[in-house]
Amino acid sequence: MELLPKLFLLTALFAAASSAAALPLGDDDEDEDQRQVNPDNQARIRFFGQAVIGLEFYRNTMCYGGDAESETPSSRGFGGAFGSKKSISLGMPVTPNVINLKQRNGILAKAFYREYAITAGEPIAIHGSYYEATSHMSRGCEDFGVSFVPEKDQDYEVALDLTDKFCRLVVSKISQTSEGVALAPVELKDAQECGDE
């Protein structure tokens, strides 16, 4: 590699690290934020994030994008690599995905999760993207999405299922049983970009 490209790369990394250092410091471990969730008309949902995963969700719609307002549990790419990795909890039950969270960590790609209260009985659309590159390979998926209608007083967990040929979002309903926590698949509909037929 020539000297000029090396200097440019080092300058860009230094600038990004300086910007990240200027952000408020926080404990990256689980943050037990016991905000009130109304079981009569709300549900809770947990998203797993990482710098290689982009996730957005849209309330009260079955499509993503367009003029609809979104919330972003996980940003992919440069912003995700240097953004906050703080897990945010509403007190949802601990599942194997939470217990094994650190096993998903990578270089500049620490795994975390965020939990949100959502309105029961209204559809939610989830949009995903994924891209990972190493010195030996790269793989990615753009613009895949699902939608479903959450039930009141239920907890859900969103995970990314990756194979060599495709990416898909898996949503599971979390329930407490006499034998511990159980995950059951939720019936999903494909979500398209708003305005697309």
Summarize the structure.
By secondary structure, this protein is mainly β. It is 14% helix and 41% strand.
List keywords for this structure.
globular; mainly beta; five-stranded antiparallel sheet; 197 residues; five-stranded mixed sheet; 41% strand
Give a written overview of the molecule.
It is a single chain. This protein is mainly β and 197 residues long. 14% of the residues lie in helices and 41% in strands. It is built from three helices and twelve strands, in the order H-E-E-E-E-H-E-H-E-E-E-E-E-E-E. It has helices at residues 3-21, 78-82, 96-99; strands at 31-32, 42-49, 53-59, 70-74, 88-89, 112-119, 124-133, 138-148, 155-162, 167-177, 180-185, 189-190. A five-stranded mixed beta sheet has the order 6-2-9-10-11, with no helix packed on it. Strands 4-3-7-8-12 form a five-stranded antiparallel beta sheet, with no helix packed on it. Strand 7 (124-133) and strand 8 (138-148) form a beta hairpin. The chain starts with a helix and ends in a 7-residue tail after the last strand. Mean pLDDT is 78; it is low at 1-34 and 78-82.
**Mean pLDDT over the full residue set:** 78
Low-confidence stretches: 1-34, 78-82
**Class from helix and strand fractions:** mainly beta
Helix fraction bin? 10-25%
Q: What topology does this entry show?
A:
Blueprint: H1 3-21, E1 31-32, E2 42-49, E3 53-59, E4 70-74, H2 78-82, E5 88-89, H3 96-99, E6 112-119, E7 124-133, E8 138-148, E9 155-162, E10 167-177, E11 180-185, E12 189-190
Parallel strand pairs: 1-5, 2-9
Antiparallel strand pairs: 2-6, 3-4, 3-7, 7-8, 8-12, 9-10, 10-11
